[in-house]
Amino acid sequence: MRKIGIVTDSHSGISQKLANELEIDVIPMPFYFGDTCYFEDVSISRADFFARLKNGEDVSTSQPSPQTVMDAWKKALERYETILHIPISSGLSSSCETAIMLAGKDEFKDRVFVVDNGRVSTPMHQSILDAIDLVEAGYSAAQCKEILERVRAKMNIYVAVSDLSYLRRGGRISGSTAAIGSLLNIKPILCFDVGKLQSFKNCRGAKKARQTMIEALRHDLETKFKEDYEAGRVRLVAATSADEKLTISWLQEIQAAFPDMDVYCDDLSLGVSCHIGPDGLGIGFSCRPKELDK
């Protein structure tokens, strides 16, 4: 049994079932349909979520209550000496700042180490796997935190949005922009590099958007991240809010573009999918810390 526990949230794309297999704890993120609160992978299924989303129901995201976070830590501290808590990026949610504040309480001081490595979705999932490997390699919780935060910039993910109406609902674009974009079959690509999600490029059609994301990723690996790429530290990742058929087609397209690399794919969390909508597709990478070189 590991001496250091790992706690994260469902924005990592890690299900409760996988969490049990990995021997980690995943705090389910809350969100609302109307006035009713639901918890990801606990009180609503993925199929029901997207059915209600497509039906036009109002949805909003939230963060776990401080008490929920502290209860998760107390439970984990019954089994572990120290904890690494790896939440969604502080650039996307205030839950990270809340966790840092809570970790300063006397009962958690020097026992809970909050990692703000600026990630969400599949790169966040990969960070959890890195944390597990670092713990098993003998690093302390404080050392793991320092390593994971030091490599926070060594990742990127691009996500193509299929339906502009969800960005409009979230207030990221205006109604007129959404209407014109839909008329012209515009598919915006969002980029998440360190901490924040921002616009990358608008493409005409889904096929062009997928090609553009692959080209952008290839450019990243051949320039800014060339050293890690050539050292074999890069792990190719994909993310999806689409159905199985479209997801498989996307993975085949990625594999054809990078035939010598394995592709790890996660469902986009429901909290992210609120803003992306259905049929969103993403591609990115995460660089393994040098400390894990064999």
Outline the structure in words.
The chain is an alpha/beta fold. The protein is 41% helix and 23% strand. The protein is built from 12 helices and 13 strands. It has helices spanning 16-22, 46-54, 66-77, 95-103, 121-136, 141-150, 165-169, 175-183, 206-222, 226-230, 244-257, 270-276, and strands at 4-9, 25-27, 30-33, 36-39, 59-61, 82-86, 112-114, 155-160, 186-192, 197-204, 234-240, 263-267, 281-287. Strand 3 (30-33) and strand 4 (36-39) form a beta hairpin. The longest helix has 17 residues, at 206-222. The radius of gyration is 19 Å and the shape is globular. Mean pLDDT is 89; it is low at 171-184.
Describe the structure concisely:
With 294 residues, the protein is of the alpha/beta class. 41% of the residues lie in helices and 23% in strands.
Could you list some keywords that capture this structure?
single chain, 294 residues, alpha/beta, 6-stranded mixed β-sheet, 4-stranded parallel β-sheet, 13 strands, 41% helix, globular
Backbone CA Rg: 19 Å
N-to-C order of helices and strands? EHEEEHEHEHEHHEHHEEHHEHEHE
What is the makeup of the main sheet? 6 strands, mixed
The rough form would be described as: globular
Mean pLDDT: 89
Structural class: alpha/beta
Query: What is the end-to-end distance?
Result: 23 Å
What strand line-up does the widest sheet have? 10-9-8-13-11-12
Share of residues in helices: 40-55%
Count helical runs. Answer: 12
Strand content: 15-25%
Which ranges are low-confidence, i.e. pLDDT below 50, for 5 or more consecutive residues? 171-184
Q: Tell how many strands the DSSP assignment holds.
A: 13
